[in-house]
Amino acid sequence: MPSSIDSGVSESPIEPSIDTMLPTFRYMVHRKLRRKAHGQYRKHSTRRYIFSAIVIGLFLTLIGIGAQKFELAKTWPQLALIVVLLLAMIYIVVKVSIVIRWCFYWLVLATLVLFVLDKGSLFDKIRFGQVPDPSDDTILKAKIVLIILALLEGLTLSVVFLLRVAYPRIILRAKWLNCRRWWRIKETPKPLSISVNYRTIMFSYLSWDPDEYRLQRSSVSYVGEFDELGKPHGLGEWTDHTFTGEALQGIWEHGVPVGPFKSQEYGTGNAFSNIRIGFCKNTTDKNTSTTFNSARDPRGVSYGAASVECSISGKFFHHLPYVRIMGDAILRSDLEKKAKDDAAAPAVVLTYPLSFLSTFAESLQSRPSIRGSFRGVSSPRSAPLSKSVVIRYTDRGISIPGYIRSRRKTDLNSVTVRRVCPPNLGLEGQPLAVIDSRESRGGGSSPLGQRPTLVLPSGVEATSSASVTSDDSDNAAGKRHVLLDGSGESDDRDHRRSLDREKRRRMSQVGLVVEGWRHVLDVDGRVSSAMSVSRAGYEALVFVHGYNCPLTYGIARLGQLLSLGEFPPYIKPFVFSWPSSVTMGYFKAKSVGCSDDVAKDLQQFIADLREAGYQRVHVLAHSMGARIVLSALRKGYLDGVLAEREVVDAESSLASAVGSHAGLRSRRTLRYRDSMPGHCNRSSSIRSLGAQESAGRIQLASFTLLNPDADLDIFLEEDYWTLSKYCPHITLYADAHDGALFWSEVLGQKKSLGRHPRTLIYAPTGEVLDVDVIDTTSLDVNIHSIRHNFFNLNRMLVDDLYDVVVLGRRANEREGRLSSRWTFSPDGTENGEVYTFLCAPSYVVNK
Asked: Helices 586-593 and 739-748: crossing angle, nearest 10°?
């Protein structure tokens, strides 16, 4: 946290004003300058690098350095040293010139001047061994050019250092800077719009316009909540009307936006998203780095949470994703002791990280609206409407993740989902008509009955009800059924006015409402919230990273995936961070990661998720992280934690062969109810071993292997059979050109699961394994040369993972994105399918 932005609280509240907003203004200007300093990602151009190298080589030739040094090289070691130094010089100059373009422009200009002055004579003298005459005007002019070039390059680097390094730090930390005088800040006495729910602070300042290359006066406004020092704290919206200024809405903490929030540059359209992610850490490494001798923390696992800011639209910036640890890792033993000592209300171990895991939608809950609060009336709530609703079948009826039933008489086998439209457009683009109850009373019968819908397209008959509320409390859901026809206990003017306010608030929202159901978005880890989590169908998404991956890097990768994919709020993300060593510590990471201690820590983490109320968990395992999870499954550490699937057909020897190799063989003939059509019929079901005890366990809803660094043969022989006992949806993303897995195969002398995109078949029986194999070899967008870590940037892969985790769709149900191809056995018969993405290579363009 910057020193200029403290979090102290005074005894008497300070009235918000421009003076109290100056630290926040400085921090937001620093954010803008930091984006400029770090720069944006640019497309790598091989031709540009070659051209830069040619220009630099020609420049060195013209000044005679290369030929003179070769003349002095008497031995081969000297010549090799000179060549290495020249190549290093060219590389450094090329890199600097690519980042700071003016350095390259000065170099090109100096090369052209040397060409004009030299006319080839200097090079000829050096080439034929002639000693240059010191009095030669050409050499003198060349020296002058070099001196001027050095001055220009030094001046350019100094200016860049001042603007990109020194100035942002001065803006953020210098106490001597007079902000009002430096930016010519002026107060806006009458803001254009004033919020009735929150305080509004608005002022103007002098800023530089990069488009018109001049200074201009721009306005800044903040609408939201404040702390006792008059700084933004809580829900708020910041708007800076400069070209690279931000429009940021989200959660603030003592003057600093900490997230979750959404932001967009005012003029460029570059958009950013900040989300929160929990983590479970069991390594002694620092959060930002790994060491060769990475080891498991002997004290056990620790829990914490972080916020991660990512680019999601427009230009992407080098310093993003940016991870900020919000809740420092605290040992589980300490959290368990604190949970037991909580006399006020029993708590669970995950209380601490769960208290941070709010989403952007949850941040708007139970607060008045910001964007909709400039209308002269205050809206009591701003619970956001969902843009998508996932409906699942369960043995107990229909389940909607993120929702619980707000009415006791709601039918468990049917759901009505209704679209709430903007005030000016209907379902098909027609103007909306509000049905007035007085017309229905005066005109006789009405197709709407007693509860007419809020808004309808003109000319369309209404068949749905508008009695659903979006309140976030159980009592409110049962007490606040809005009747738009004005019927109720009183018809006075105040009651009609409140109905009008509710009507206008409803008309301002866009999205879907589920009749008889409401959002449950509060999670604080206590028993009541754990019950809400269970009832609302909250699901945990656990990402297990690969080797040579510090905690913050794993959080950044998962955050980028969730930000681009717009995963729904009921998906709560976590990162399991294990001792992953460094690049040269491959075997060290493999031995530590597959140890019994790490397996026990993973078991404890999954058990704590179940205690916190989660009934379903999704696992994303990347690279060596897949080996870690599969090893824990193979050793049986998750047997008492994960719920087993229901078996409808099994061999009689199953019960006597548990835990043996014969037991694994007998499981190969198992058929599970959730993988068969019409599995709602329970008449012929035979439950698997221990199924009666599965009620207290967590369901492994999906298991996704992302370029897994796991042994192919072991997966076919053992891992799949153990995994399929728990998980009905297994997906493998494999790449035949994965460079990292190539070296894994070379070092381990075994085939890697993630490098062979083919149908997985158990050879002894010829059985095709129930795994969706996705071949990513043809993808070439947002993919580095090693092709090992791109699941969070490639748009096709991001959307596919959304369908796997959120919608639970198998590969054959994703026909709009995947194309299947048949694979063949050695005898020429078809033995399965492998799926590839429906996309054209990046180099294919219209002629």
From this structure: 80
pLDDT digit string, tens, across residues 593-617? 999 999 999 999 999 999 988 999 9
Give CA–CA dist 323/314, Å, rounded.
20
Helix (H) or strand (E) holding 273: strand 271-281
Q: Cα–Cα distances in Å, from 152 out to 60, 65, 102, 109?
A: 18, 20, 9, 11
At 508, is the secondary structure helix, strand, or coil?
coil
End-to-end Cα, the chain, rounded Å: 53
Instruction: Summarize pLDDT for 686-697 with one digit per residue, the tens.
Output: 343 334 344 578
Cα 703 from Cα 621, distance rounded (Å): 8
pLDDT at res. 809: 92
If you write DSSP's letter for every residue of 313-379 in order, what string do you get? ESS-BTT-SEEEEEEEEEEHHHHHHHHHT--SS-B-TTHHHHTT---HHHHTTTS--STT--SSS--
Q: Which structural domains are found in the chain, ordered by start?
A: 1-12+183-269 (no CATH), 46-159 (no CATH), 392-518 (no CATH), 530-645+694-818 (3.40.50.1820), 646-689 (no CATH)
By percentage, how much of the chain surpasses pLDDT 70?
Answer: 70
How far apart are alpha carbons 630 and 617 in whole angstroms? 16
Across all residues in the chain, what is the average pLDDT?
77
Quote the CA–CA distance of 152 and 820 in Å, as a whole number: 59
Whole-angstrom distance, CA of residue 46 vs CA of residue 99: 15
Question: At 314, phi and psi to the nearest 5?
Answer: 75, -140
Average pLDDT over residues 324-347: 85
How far is 615 from 741, CA to CA, in rounded Å?
Answer: 34
DSSP state of 688: P
CB 250 within 8 A of CB 274: yes
Structure tokens at 25: 């203004």
Q: Quick one: pLDDT at residue 406?
A: 75
Q: Which residues pair with 257 in a beta bridge?
A: 252
- Extract the tokens encoding 598: 């790490």
Owner of token pair 């803006």: 171
Q: What is the Cα–Cα distance from 428 to 351, expressed in whole angstroms? A: 46
Residue 418 has pLDDT above 60, yes or no: yes
Q: Is residue 616 within 8 Å of 540, Cβ to Cβ? A: yes
Residues in the chain: 847
Task: Check whether the bond before 321 is cis (ω within 30° of 0).
Answer: yes
Structure token pair of residue 339: 């949970």
Q: For residue 47, what are the contacts with CB-CB under 8 A and spacing of at least 6?
A: none
Provide the pLDDT for residue 437.
Answer: 34
Whether 426 has a pLDDT exceeding 90, the answer reads: no
Q: What's the pLDDT at 143? A: 78
Cβ distance 543 to 554 under 8 Å? yes
Structure tokens at 625: 């992280």
Q: Which residue has the tokens 């809740």?
A: 327
Record the pTM: 0.81
| Residues whose CB is less than 8 angstroms from the CB of residue 432 and which lie 6 or more positions away in sequence, other chains included | 421, 423, 424, 425, 426, 455, 456, 457, 458, 507
569 phi and psi angles, rounded to 5 deg:
-65, -25
**Distances from the Cα of 796 to the Cαs of 210, 511, 565, 783, 790, in angstroms?**
35, 25, 10, 12, 11
Whether 516 and 405 have beta carbons less than 8 Å apart is answered as yes
Partners of 239 in the β-ladder: 221, 247
CA 61 from chain center: how many Å? 49
Closest CA to 349 of 608, 613, 617: 608
Question: 537 and 389 in contact (C-beta within 8 Å)?
Answer: no
Q: How far is CA 439 from its chain centroid?
A: 50
Q: 273 and 309 in contact (C-beta within 8 Å)?
A: yes
